[in-house]
Amino acid sequence: MRRTKENLINRPEYIEKLNSWFDQTDLVKIVTGVRRCGKSKLLKLFQEELITQKGISEAQIVDINLENLEQTRKIGLQLRDNNILTPYTVLLDYIISKLSLNKMNYVFIDEVQMLENWQQVANTLRLRDNVDLYLTGSNAYMFSSDLANSFGGRYVEIKMQPYSLKEYREAILSEKENYTPQDLYNNYIIESGFPQTVKFKHDKELISDYVMNTVFYNTIQKDIIRRFNIAHTNKLDAVIRFIFDNIGNETSLRNIEKGLKASGRPVSVPSIDIYLQGLLDSYLVYKCDRFDIKGKQYLDSNAKYYVADIGLRTTVLGSKDMDYGHVLENIVYLELIRRGYRVSVGKLKTDTKTLEVDFVAQKNGNEVEYYQVALYALEPEILERELTPLKKIPDNYPKYLLSMDTGQGLNDGIKRINIFDWLLTS
Questions:
Q1: How many domains in the chain?
Q2: What values do phi and psi take at 95, rounded to 5?
Q3: 28-66 pLDDT tens trace
């Protein structure tokens, strides 16, 4: 993982994805992900790559950061009370005035959802023969059916996350510290994978303040409270804490309502539905649906939820009574998503009961892998419990058991892999 002249830490997997769509100018490239996961820095990295590796001149690059008040004021945009910039025509005129007429131009607009009618700007630029357009956004609400209609489906989404454990290790290498994988992991689940936190040199107070205020409260305020005009923020907080505290547990709106009522924090099902949609749209939380392995279909009832970053969860809930099994499961889920899989919870009906496979990972329509996740599985009883659902699957797709046990092995064709080997070397 190289560092650039601006001391930006490279994210090679995301750069590779951007490169794969390079110069396909009929497609709008949109990088999405939770706030502060590194989207803005990724655009900077890609711009440097265009200049140093592809011979693009700086004059061919138009770079707009809509969170930069100084820049938006110079352009002539005004920030309304709802945190939306207007008028969009001013930005469009500004960008067009910066374009080189006889060369390809590379236009980058960061946090595009802050602009009113941003789809009009994006679509107008997309239709120009001399523009290759790249956007970032921090809210999935922007990807409505209207967007698909506006672009005629001519866009690609690159989903970005905070640092993986592997990226986190690379980011702190300059400290010259010799971490064991376990020590690295222990720091990671407390300090978070948000890139900025690496600069705080393990100062847990600074890290906690940054994650809570700059990431968490900022996202909640801008992407949920303002969007849904929420007055009772204490109820929103109750739902967030419930979801964060129940990662990896199957649940439903009705179950969440019952759980909150039992704890003395009643919230109605319609409100829970709204709050949960806001959490999903802001990429703070991911939903993992259930999948019938034999029937090859997704199930409507219940789901599991996982948080975008374990360090964020630790900051909000604290580390006391942490369920380390579900924390590990959460990290595996995020890693599978990062590797491009569509991930679901596997359900397998037998003659006597329904078994659960932690994750069914599917890619490209016909690639399927099955995963069980356990903290430790050396005890014969635990090992058999974890292996049984995988053994019962009636197909020959790859099956894995990931755990913190050292070494690797094979049981009836099921590969047992040390979790750190899987996370750090794959």
A1: 2
A2: -65, -45
A3: 999 999 999 999 999 999 999 999 999 999 999 999 999
